[in-house]
Design a protein that fits this description.
Length: 188
């Protein structure tokens, strides 16, 4: 099956549900810090922060959201050595002693998340790190699992999952396509 798997309303529902799950699992949002993994994990982290503020008005979405660049922590730099280094922006409240929720769009092999965990350890020591993803497509290569999943989409290795977000792509949708339809990869 190929085509649109999630539309804008589905993505919004998934973000809202994940926000409620985060609040429930952590007995509130007081210790939550969100770190988006660029590119599309960052706008998802901001959307999730706004959803958390809607549930708990005391949650300061601006002070508790940041970005974590994983470029130099990747294990495939030898295969793709010309990568632009991004910016890590830690939230104003920092990450020491916090419950850090890593946010990404597509969870695939686990290698992106492993790199993010390595990066976090260079910036501080959170009490706990949790993972929120919009789509889990399976095919894990590392023993890492998501704590919060918007949608599980079983895929074959010959398929790819493309997440489009209005902040970057002009529309909100998740598309499943055959790998030969378009080059690139979702390697989280």
């Amino acid at each position: 099956m190929t085509g649109t798997i999630l539309g804008a309303p589905d993505i919004q529902r998934a973000i809202t549900r994940i926000a409620h799950e985060i609040v429930e699992r952590n007995d509130g949002a007081a210790s939550i810090v969100l770190l988006g993994i660029p590119t599309r994990g960052l706008p998802l982290a901001h959307r999730l922060a706004h959803a958390l503020a809607g549930i708990e008005p005391a949650f300061d979405h601006a002070a508790r959201t940041g970005a974590i660049d994983i470029t130099m922590y990747r294990d495939d730099l030898h295969r793709h050595p010309t990568r632009a280094i991004g910016t890590t922006t830690l939230p104003d409240v920092g990450i020491d002693g916090a419950t850090v929720v890593l946010v990404d769009d597509v969870f695939h092999t686990g290698r992106t998340i492993r790199a993010a965990l390595d990066a976090i350890s260079d910036f501080g020591r959170p009490d706990v790190v949790q993972l929120a993803v919009l789509v889990d497509r399976g095919h894990r290569e590392l023993p890492i699992r998501a704590d919060y999943v918007g949608k599980n989409i079983p895929t074959s290795r010959s398929e790819r999952v493309d997440v489009h977000l209005s902040e970057i792509d002009g529309a909100d949708e998740v598309i499943l396509r055959r790998a030969q339809d378009e080059e690139g990869g979702d390697e989280s």
